[in-house]
Amino acid sequence: MKLKFLGATGTVTGSKYLVETSRARVLVDHGLFQGHKQLRERNWTPLPVEAKSIDAVLATHAHVDHIGGLPLLVREGFRGPIHASTGTHDVAQFILPDSARLQEEDAAYANRKGFSKHSPARPLYDEKDARRALQLFVRWRYRQSFGVAPGITAELIPAGHIVGSTHVLLTVEDGGAPVRILFSGDVGPYDAPILPDPSAIPACDYLLVESTYGNREHEAVDPRDELAERIGETIRRGGRVVIPAFAVGRTQEVLYLINELVEQGRLPPVPVIVDSPMAEKATQVVTQHAEDHDEEMRERARSGAPLSYRKASFPRGRRGSSASARGKRPAIVISASGMATGGRVLNYLRALLPDPRNTVLLTGFQAAGTRGRRLQDGESTIKIHGEWIPVHARVAMIHRLSAHADRHQLLRWLRTAPQPPKTTFVVHGEPEAATALRDAIETELRWQAVVPEYLQDVQL
Length: 460
Ligand SMILES: [Zn+2]
Description:
By secondary structure, the protein is of the alpha/beta class. It has helices at about 35-40, 65, 70-75, 85-115, 125-135, 225-235, 250-265, 280-290, 295-305, 315-325, 345-350, 370-375, 405-415, 430-445, and strands at about 1-5, 15-20, 25-30, 55-60, 80-85, 135-140, 145-150, 150-160, 165-170, 180-185, 205-210, 240-245, 270-275, 310-315, 330-335, 360, 380-385, 385-390, 395, 425, 450, 455-460.
């Protein structure tokens, strides 16, 4: 049998792996490449096999870099089942149509400005493709074993990354003894608000592990202290705090923590503007999926609503959003996208970056080539909607709020394996991060580990 790396090599985006036997072809994840233009162009590269020859897809979780390519696969002729947890399907219901709308908007924008190589520019896929992909989903509870294709069964194991996130365990038979492959998806982190820790690794022959933070440790400070300090000082000098955040996951964590800080009197009851059309739906999904709540979240949910905040407002439509972005009163703004690559957060950054009283709080991994990374790197001007905006606002990073395990936690997770896998493939990291984690696995765990390359094939 063969494993082919179709994405998430040398980058944290475009997660996509093909498992091929003499009887079956199965894809794990089909994510979009994001960030640098050379990467994004890979989204247009056809798969090495025909889409309709693929028997089934398994989705680890509902982030766009893991499932954002599914509508494209359907457009290319795939008609098989897409297996996922119930949480992943619930989130995909609004993530995929939204991703389609962004594709359509980008194409329309390129046509207006006339900068596309293709004339007219086409979207990668449209909303109809997204709806068709959603109809192919088959929902599974955690740890249920199910058949995927001839000789292949699977199990979805909770990964503690976002609501519905899983590690995918495949058991593959192709003539000889069955081979077990574990795809980590995105891992953890441990001790995050709301979600439980990642699950222990089951016995497996091969392991794919993400390495987003393979070369970094999150700071040991409690994110509550950092949030209280950064938000407190900004509000005192009459400024606004803008937090670029994914609608799913980070937005709920930030709401949860602000709620707690206000309850404890560590922050004044500051108005919070949640400006993302998906954030309300996402908050509902996170609230409903009790199987994804840790002990503390359950405890707080028994006595109240830990994700609803009294002074939260949700601007409606584009007009509501622009009016809100022009506002001057001290407030906390939570808005997507999380790496400031698009979405309504751009209106706020444009309005708030030139004023030194304001603060931008980055709360997750900022991929190379994104505006979020430029801000993190301290660039003094940022291009937004074709205009150069001076950065006078303070920019701070709250690492402990990242939805990924850091280097130390990745090793902690790997140590839960009952026995060393034959080979551990280090994926889903920028080159320095992946190499650093591979080295750590070899020296600290004494396992065999490799960093695969884009389009590499491995015989298992
Ligand atoms: Zn993710």
